[in-house]
Amino acid sequence: MGFLGQCMENLLMDQEFWLISLDQHSGIEISIKEETLNLMYKGFLMQEGSFFGCCTANQMFDSSTSGSDLYLEKGDIALFEPPFLGSGWTVLSLADGSRGTKPKPALEPVIPFHEWFLKSCPETVLVGGGKDTCDLPLQIAVGVCETTEEYDAEGPDELSFQAGERIIILGLLVACFEWFMGKSEKTGDIGLVKTNLVKATGSFCESSDIFLKDEDRQIITLDQDKIKGKTISLLKKICQSDVGTNYKLDLAKEISGPVQNKTQEVNNLKQKVNHILSEVDETQRKDDSSVSIKHQIEIETNDTEESQETPRFSVCSEQDSTSPDGHHALLSFLSSRDHQPVFMLLYSAYPEFLISHFEGHSDEEDIVAYLGVARELARKKHVWWAQSRICFLLGQLCAGRSKFSQARVYYEEALNVPRDCFKDMFLLSAIYSNLALIYLTQKNHDKFFILSERLSALLMAVPDCLFGCEDPEVLKYVLKKAILAKNQPAEARACFILAKLHLKLKDNMSAIPFIERLLILADDVPEAYDETVSHVFLVLARLYSDQSLPRLAESCARRASLQVGATASHCLCGVSLLMENASELYGVDIPTQVAPYLTRAAALVSPGQEPAMGYVHALCLSWLFHKHSMPDRAVRYMLTVLDHSSMSSVGQSDTTAALIWTAWLYICNQQPSTALEVLDAVLSSLPEHCTTQLEGVVYNMRAISYRHSADIRQAAESYRAAIEICEEFEDRHNWAIALANCGFMCLQIKAKKLAGEYLTQSVELFSELEDEGHELSLISVLLELGTHLISQGKHENGKIYYEWALLTAMHIDHMDSQLHATRHLCQLYEEVCPDETQCIIYYKHQLDLLRRIGDKSLEGEILEKISQLYLNLATEKSNRAALDYTKQSLGIFIDLGRKRKEAHAWLQSGKIYHILQQTELVDLYVQVAQDIALSTGDTLFALEMLEAAGDVFFNSSQDREKAICFYRDRALPIAVKTSSVRSQLRLCNKLSELLLQLGQCSEAIEFTQTALDISVSLADHLNERVAFHRLATLYHCVGQFEMAEHHFLKALSLCPSPLQYDEEALYYVRVYQTLGDIIFYDVKDPFDAAGYYHLALAAAMDLGNKRSQLELCTRLATIYHNFLMDRELSLFFYQRARAFANDLHIRRINLAPDYSFRTTAQYKNTITGATR
Fold first, then answer.
1. Are 667 and 629 in contact (CB under 8 A)?
2. Which residue blocks in 80-217 are alpha helix, DSSP H?
């Protein structure tokens, strides 16, 4: 739970967060209600059955094994089993194995670590050992104590003393253990002392440190200096891998005005750069002169080193086995009373010592026989320490062959042979641990507990005494005793020892819980662990990483760097762990999470002491800021390293690369003039009579600077110089980049033909390269060339270059380049060469890339686009596919909390359900969309969504009347309240059109009049003309013919003059014909009707529409023949009508008037159809 906050930060925060957070304290804090967590924990324990609990009060339990009841005190830990089928709780005492029952015991579950550990203990370790009977006031103590009574040692490992004798505590005295290691102040003898036979003195004090003096506090050795050096080298390799060798590609599309630099600042920077370069030259000369001296010293040092040979023993043959001379060397070697470093292999697991020191044997039986003779010889000669060590070796051999009883005899002899006290504590530790393991294997509980208590005292007194221990089960008793006694310092040391042993045995997974518990205990006494906690966190991070838990590994490494005792090496070890998993988790070589580590590491060292640290810190952070488009901050970090006087000590190549990188950052920050000052200084420092590739790099960057300064002539000259150097060295990669940069410059000055030639030549050179590393530059040039060709109208050629770029990006599996190329192809098929099928294909590929990257926001937007493309295909299958993609985007927007997008997705789903005629779901989705929109608190957005909801029905052919509710009752009042005039106009137009279709003309007139008033106030002549025309139609529909005529004429008066399009002339034809029909059929005025028909005929003649002319000539012939009695005009229009009829292949013309016809009948038919 302690790592949850850091894990959530790494999982949820984007990469830019870690760069922004350098200047502010920000992150995720996790808070969980402890009561809820405990309730869940208790529920899990009850489901499992029996669990370990701590008594919360003194209580009696009915005995189930003997006549006496079981008594447990407050704080005692026991194994509890919940009741089953009405029975009471069953309890098992861990002190002596007694059992009892009780209906409702007072208990609380132990913490999860204690629960896990106690359940992992075998019953022989778990049950027994008795209770702590010591009365000392401190849990863990150091100093001097005083004996309370006389004691005679029962073995060489114990200490004899008189009452009142002062005992110096060796290591730690732990109150919960029966023994501790002491030294008699009077005699100087060392041995085990019973804890309950001493009392405190004035020199007796509590210890907050669980580590022993001169003890290696590292759980496992991490070569931090080696990791630090490798990490620095790797960061430098990535961040400046191509700075001094590869040309930079100038991808800036638009060159904005350069940032004006203060002259004083530029001069200061120029002085700094010149000073650094001069210092580097001087340092380089000194280094060259000292190389030979250092080499000679190294040779002399290597010559004086002498290797120490380890003693080797020849196993005697059978006939010589009784010869004492054959064993003299072995007895002499093993007879030392004190510990010797060479004995470490002796106490390690078989067969290291035997392999290293014995020769001439064919099998183990030869060694056993040889050692048996040596044992007897040592006993006869009273060489006790040699006898003890030989017995230990014999015990190891027997245990290795599973002869445990025989091994136990040898171990017990090895323990009891010496006549004086043990001084070889490593031998004593090895005997204790191996003998205890045999007692445990043979289920000899009493002797196991006795020996485990002695081993516990040794572990608390002797540093690094685990060489002879090969089974963690032996040490579990130590931790169990500490847990039952609630002795947290002793528990912490036991966890430390167990973790160390598991790691020694290569059982990394089993070490993790003990390390986690050690870190939790360290939080209670942080000052005691300042120097160790960072290391422990790093070890845990490494273990998590090895177990494929990269998020936890990152969190541990982060915690390690934040500790008070953290060093720069700890921080760089954390960086190393991050970079190991960076490609898998983030798809980059260096994640931005390294920024806090590097900043912390740089703060822990002074630049003068470790110049490489300050250099790498500035270089890496500037590289990260540049990658994330923050060039101003990138420049700032590089300037900090230039200010340090130790910059010259990082080496000539690194210094030159840093200056070139700084110049590039100035270019990216729109400070090309400052970049030129730096580049000119670097160029002047290069050899005059020897051309180098570095010179070409500088010339190319100078050309880019000149281009950004709008000095095209100087830029062209520098590009030419860079290209000549490439030709001299046959460097086709950089040559291609220089040509591409020339092409980009030509595009800037509109020399499009020349730009195409340069870019084509660049692509040709790129395509000839066989080595890798040029693909990203090729992709950029291909996309630029494709865009150029498309702008010239060569769409097919441009498409080919786009596809080439995409295939190259897919070949190198570069996500960003694939996205870039795919977006170009989507734009091509969406805007330039519309092809919905191809567009869907590339949008789907873009969707797959975004899912691999993990960009949920863009993924949701692409899902929206794919849904709309499928909807445009207008088939049932495509509509269902659109619904599926819309729902996917909806889920993403809900997760991201993007309310606006979520509302649109709900509404789009409802619209698609409406198209699919699943009406039962339409209202549900539309209602949810409204609720989401209203929950945003944005009135204008709510208005937009309400109108869009009405559009779902308005633009459909079914249930159109449902749109009225959204327009009139919901959206329009909000539009009026918010004074959104345009929205009012749009809603009134839609309402009037919809009401007209539904036959509600009176109400439609009201909304149309409102739309007319708004149009007039806005001086919107088009909407004003539409409103007049719609009003005329509505008045015509309700039979108010004079009002209809008036509004039609007003609409015609707003038409532009002269006419510009055929549609305008056609509008005149139809309106004048409608006016003629109204006057002729409804008003019954043939004379005025003829006038309107004449105007309509003139417009039709201007338009050249023969069918309209036929119809109008027929009407005029009818009026003049039957009503106005003008035979001449009647004949004229009849002949004209016959001519048009012949042209249109119409055989018959009817001149008989249908005077009972009413023009309003057309609206009745329309309304009836709409209602149906």
1. no
2. 112-120, 123-126
- Show Cβ contacts of residue 177 under 8 Å, excluding neighbours closer than 6 positions: 195, 453, 456, 457, 460, 478, 481, 490
> DSSP H helical segments within 874-980, as ranges?
876-896, 899-915, 919-935, 939-954, 962-964, 972-977
Query: Cα–Cα distance between 1029 and 1035 in angstroms, integer?
Result: 10
- Could you tell me if 942 and 933 are in contact, meaning their C-beta atoms sit under 8 angstroms apart? yes
Residues 556 and 7: their CA atoms lie apart, in Å, by 10
Tokens of 898: 């993007």
Kindly state the tokens that stand for 492. Answer: 């912490």
568-586 vs 594-604: helix crossing angle, rounded to 10:
170
Cis peptide, bond prior to residue 351, ω within 30 of zero: yes
What is the 3-class SS of 745-795, one letter each residue?
A: HHHHCCCHHHHHHHHHHHHHHHHHCCCCCCHHHHHHHHHHHHHHHHHCCCH
Residues 6+ apart with CB under 8 A from 608: 645, 646
Beta bridge partners of 168: 144, 183
Q: Who contacts 554 (Cβ-Cβ below 8 Å, separation ≥6)?
A: 6, 7, 10, 541, 577, 578, 581, 593
pLDDT digits (tens, 9 = 90+) for 13-42: 778 888 888 877 777 778 888 888 888 888
Beta strand pairing call for 140-147 and 198-206: antiparallel
> Are the C-beta atoms of 499 and 522 separated by less than 8 Å?
no
3-state secondary structure of 59: strand
Q: In this predicted structure, which of 89-98, 161-170, 973-982, 1052-1061 has the lowest mean pLDDT?
A: 1052-1061
- Kindly report whether the peptide bond that precedes residue 1058 is cis, defined as omega within 30 degrees of 0: yes
φ, ψ (nearest 5 deg) of residue 702: -65, -40
pLDDT tens readout for residues 1066-1093 = 999 999 999 999 998 888 898 999 999 9
Phi, then psi, of 268 in degrees rounded to 5: -60, -40
The predicted-structure confidence for 1005-1051, as pLDDT tens digits, reads as follows 999 999 999 999 999 999 999 999 999 999 999 989 999 999 999 99
Highest mean pLDDT among 273-282, 302-311, 1067-1076: 1067-1076
Q: How far apart are CA 396 and CA 387, in angstroms?
A: 14
Closest by CA position to 87, among listed 101, 72, 106, 73? 101
CA atoms within 13 A on the CB side of 338: 2
- Residue 531's Cα: distance from chain center in Å? 30
Structure tokens at 746: 């030509």
pLDDT at 320: 46
Strands (E), 344-433: 358-359
Rounded distance, CA 87 to CA 73, Å?
Answer: 23
Strand, helix or coil at 590? coil
User: How far apart are the C-alpha atoms of 24 and 250, rounded to whole Å?
Assistant: 34
The answer, yes or no, to whether residue 862 has pLDDT greater than 90, is yes
Per-residue pLDDT at 366 exceeds 70: yes
**Could you tell me the CA-to-CA distances from 1111 to 208, 848, 1034, 1093, 1144 in Å, in that order?**
111, 61, 25, 10, 12
In the prediction, which pLDDT does 165 show?
A: 93
Mean pLDDT score of the chain: 85
What's the chain's length in residues? 1172
pLDDT at 283: 60
Give this prediction's pTM.
Answer: 0.76
Instruction: Output the six-digit token pair for 136.
Output: 């000392």
Cα–chain-centroid distance for residue 43? 33
Distance CA(685)–CA(693), nearest Å, equals: 14
Q: What is the pLDDT of residues 583-615, one digit of tens each?
A: 888 878 899 889 998 988 888 887 667 778 888
Which pLDDT tens digit goes with each residue over 783-831?
A: 999 999 999 999 999 999 999 999 999 999 888 999 999 999 999 999 9
